[in-house]
Amino acid sequence: MSEPILEYPSTRREALTPDSGDWWARAACRDAELAVFFSPDDERGHARDRREAQALQICLPCPVLVQCRDHALAVGEPYGVWGGMTEGDRRKRSRRLRGQRRPLESCARTP
Prior knowledge:
Layout: H1 45-59, H2 65-75, H3 87-100, H4 104-107
């Protein structure tokens, strides 16, 4: 008896945006087990670190790493390893970018 495959909408390759092209068809992960890229609910600590390291090993030589990363950042992908970035990497990047924005009034120049 095989285990059921649980897919969240964001983890399905069909969920890619229409304008994303066919880059995913050339991805190094196209034949890999999706479980390497997405964390089970109860995964923590070293187990998560090992799984993410395995996913990143697949991502690093990928010919479409940049397109994959751009897609994940553009759609705000909350789950999994995409384009060599973990969930935590994307959250840190998002926080860093929010911190760089200045309120409009601080940009105004005084004559």
